[in-house]
Design the sequence.
């Protein structure tokens, strides 16, 4: 009797010890917990933070009324919101009960409903005999609708050449600056860079702006048919990059012997397409796919610059199917 | 005495119960409220990135509404006569003039403008980081593919929205950006020319109506779609519940974390106010996009070292890195150059993003099952290596967007830098793939945390029934 009792006690102790030693598997562990009870300091801190916010709010109002300085407003507004945020965060972390809960994740699938939906969908076509024909007709209607929308849009294409390539330049048109003053050949000095427009034309027209530069005529390397396009070494090129329509506003003009190896070039600041000035605007570097269009120049009796013909190629970027 | 205690115990309860029973009796809202209040949010810092994006969106709506009260979306020419002296008498558009008025004459206008701009930068940044978290932890896997597609669409729309926004003031940078956008739109296959012409109402810079088209897209169309998609994004999360990292008691079939009421609501509201506070501080103290210094835009002006907002850096980089390939056949252009950098490259990146859940289950993880427990990046070395490799390619192109600054500010030769980045773009992603895979394999084998020491010992049972320390 005593031995049995002793055995039972030992067994109980061993069982308890085992239960104490056995760590529950992490997956079986129940992490839910709830701690209630706010420390006094947290209550006082939130109280202090909330009590200070109206003062800063008054500051913001006073600033708006008296001196709406951007920096002070930002500082006061940021401080006001910062205090409010601190109050909320302290309250969320220390005032309210801290809880970790375990929520069961709902099963998303409901096969019975799915079956019913599929049956209902099928039932919608019940009693119809020419199903395929009807589906085909619906397809044809959809295709017709798409075509009715798409064809007018694509039909804008053929007229584009006229619309997107026009330039106000023609032979004899004078080159003027932003104020409309004619540009004299003598005004353009080597190493300088001038923007010019056709006289009396819209300056915001993509076909208008050209860049005028002067180079040593001996260094020119223009194609044979353009020999006469650069009187006194004066050259004009479209200012609009053939890559993506940015204004070409950088001019690389070698100033010293060490940089003479590479001649003058016009560079677009957007993606650095680099166009050779001496050979007629060929692409030297960068993404542009077409040379920069050149405008033939002449010098009239007063020494002013005039266009001596049309641009050598289309102005501005290409599009799918254009003629260039 | 007893009666007094009873009254004081009941009075505060009925005060919170009354509005609840008011809506419950009319809308049956009790069940929904119970669901919302006990909705469990798993605790992990990386889960806050999406919340930051959401709260930034709210700041954007608020500051943008203020700006819309004063902005004039018109390209009508007028002579500037506002408070900013250096531009007195300049011929500017009404849009540009109203941006100057907002900056110098309207009380708090510059603060609102700068808060709005900083918020836009943070919005896209938070979405991007959130997306990276989703990709590297496998949170896009079944059942979350649909919500992932909504998220990627939100990123694309956020970028478009940001671009439309900074194109509005009609300053020099706006115009240069729009010129490039027009060039890229023109380069789209088949429809490019007619599409760009129809959208701009003619050749760039376009008809006057283009500015109001841009405006309505920026203040109504895109924000409305963004708001609707954000609502769908949140609704889908709530239907499926949050995913969670593995941990004690965390299984595929449960969610462990803080319920919305009261702890999480206060913390999340706190985060919202923190985001707002940081944005107001930045808007007040850190200058951004001083349009009065850039000046008004004309088609014939441009400037060196011009940079777009950060989230377009990868597109300008792609346009810059692309060699001058342009396909012409029989005197007709077939593929204009801007297509490659401006449309094809972002198209491929977004196609990869959209296809990722299906690429991952078919080729990378070879796993079609539902997963609600997240993976750490090392747990799936192939996916992590693939994502890191694509990311490194985009990062190099992004860095290449700054070659003009490297040249302009530090004097690094532009052409050499471009060739360097072209080479890096071809080499680095492969290197990153190999390296990332090795690091992940190494980490998962060592069971070591990169920042913390592993202080345990791993014991594995062998075939003979004994135990080996590994």
Sequence:
């Amino acid at each position: 009797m005593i031995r049995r009792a002793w055995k039972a006690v030992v067994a109980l102790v061993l069982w308890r010890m085992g239960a104490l030693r056995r760590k529950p598997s992490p997956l079986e562990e129940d992490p839910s917990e709830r701690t209630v009870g706010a420390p006094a300091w947290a209550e006082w801190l939130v109280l202090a933070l909330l009590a200070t916010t109206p003062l800063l709010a008054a500051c913001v109002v006073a600033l708006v009324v008296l001196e709406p300085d951007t920096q002070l407003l930002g500082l006061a507004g940021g401080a006001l919101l910062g205090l409010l945020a601190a109050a909320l965060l302290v309250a969320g972390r220390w005032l309210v009960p801290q809880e970790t809960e375990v929520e069961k994740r709902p099963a998303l699938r409901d096969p019975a409903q799915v079956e019913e939906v599929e049956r209902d969908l099928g039932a919608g076509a019940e009693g119809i005999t020419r199903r395929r024909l009807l589906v085909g007709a619906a397809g044809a209607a959809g295709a017709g609708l798409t075509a009715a929308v798409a064809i007018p849009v694509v039909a804008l294409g053929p007229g584009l050449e006229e619309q997107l390539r026009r330039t106000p330049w023609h032979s004899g048109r004078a080159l003027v600056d932003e104020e409309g003053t004619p540009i004299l050949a003598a005004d353009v000095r080597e190493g300088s860079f001038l923007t010019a427009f056709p006289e009396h034309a819209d300056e915001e027209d993509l076909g208008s702006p050209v860049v005028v530069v002067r180079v040593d005529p001996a260094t020119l390397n223009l194609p044979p048919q353009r020999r006469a396009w650069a009187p006194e070494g004066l050259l004009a090129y479209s200012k609009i990059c053939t890559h993506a329509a940015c204004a070409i506003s950088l001019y690389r003009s070698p100033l010293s012997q060490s940089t003479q190896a590479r001649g003058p070039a016009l560079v677009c600041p957007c993606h650095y397409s680099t166009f050779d000035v001496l050979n007629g605007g060929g692409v030297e570097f960068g993404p542009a796919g077409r040379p920069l269009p050149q405008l033939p120049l002449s010098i009239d009796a007063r020494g002013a610059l005039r266009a001596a013909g049309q641009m050598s190629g289309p102005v501005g970027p290409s599009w799918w199917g254009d003629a260039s | 005495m007893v009666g007094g205690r009873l009254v004081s115990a009941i009075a505060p309860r009925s005060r919170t119960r009354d509005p609840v029973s008011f809506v419950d009796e009319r809308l049956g809202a009790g069940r929904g409220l119970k669901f919302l209040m006990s909705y469990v949010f798993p605790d992990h810092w990386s889960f806050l990135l999406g919340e930051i994006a959401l709260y930034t969106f709210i700041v954007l709506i608020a500051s943008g509404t203020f700006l819309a009260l004063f902005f004039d979306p018109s390209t009508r020419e007028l002579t500037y006569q506002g408070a900013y002296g250096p531009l007195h008498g300049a011929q500017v558009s009404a849009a540009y003039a109203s941006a100057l008025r907002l900056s110098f004459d309207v009380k708090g206008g510059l603060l609102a403008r700068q808060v709005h701009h900083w918020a836009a930068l943070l919005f896209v940044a938070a979405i991007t980081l959130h997306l990276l978290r989703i990709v590297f932890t496998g949170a896009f896997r079944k059942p979350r593919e649909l919500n992932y597609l909504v998220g990627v669409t939100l990123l694309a729309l956020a970028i478009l929205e940001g671009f439309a926004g900074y194109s509005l003031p009609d300053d020099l940078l706006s115009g240069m950006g729009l010129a490039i956008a027009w060039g890229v739109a023109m380069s789209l296959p088949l429809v490019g020319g007619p599409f760009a012409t129809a959208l701009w109402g003619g050749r760039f810079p376009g008809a006057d109506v283009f500015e109001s088209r841009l405006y309505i897209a920026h203040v109504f169309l895109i924000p409305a779609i963004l708001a609707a998609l954000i609502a769908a994004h949140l609704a889908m999360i709530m239907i499926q519940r949050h995913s969670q990292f593995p941990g004690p008691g965390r299984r595929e079939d449960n969610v462990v974390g803080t319920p919305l009421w009261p702890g999480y609501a206060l913390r999340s509201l706190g985060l919202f106010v923190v985001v707002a506070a940081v944005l107001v501080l930045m808007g007040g103290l850190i200058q951004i996009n001083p349009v009065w210094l850039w000046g008004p835009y004309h088609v014939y002006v441009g400037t060196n070292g011009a940079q777009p907002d950060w989230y377009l850096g990868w597109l300008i980089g792609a346009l810059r890195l692309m060699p001058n390939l342009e396909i012409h056949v029989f005197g007709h252009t077939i593929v204009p150059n801007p297509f490659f950098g401006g449309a094809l490259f972002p198209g491929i990146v977004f196609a990869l993003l959209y296809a990722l859940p299906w690429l991952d289950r078919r080729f990378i993880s070879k796993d079609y099952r539902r997963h609600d427990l997240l993976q750490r990046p090392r747990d799936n070395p192939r996916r992590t290596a693939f994502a890191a490799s694509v990311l490194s390619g985009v990062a190099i192109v992004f860095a290449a967007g700054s070659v003009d600054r490297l040249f302009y500010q530090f004097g690094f030769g532009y052409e050499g830098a471009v060739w360097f980045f072209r080479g890096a773009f071809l080499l680095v992603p492969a290197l990153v793939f190999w390296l990332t895979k090795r690091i992940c394999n190494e980490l998962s084998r060592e069971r070591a945390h990169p920042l913390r020491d592993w202080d345990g010992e791993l014991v594995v049972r062998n075939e003979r029934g004994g135990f080996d320390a590994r």
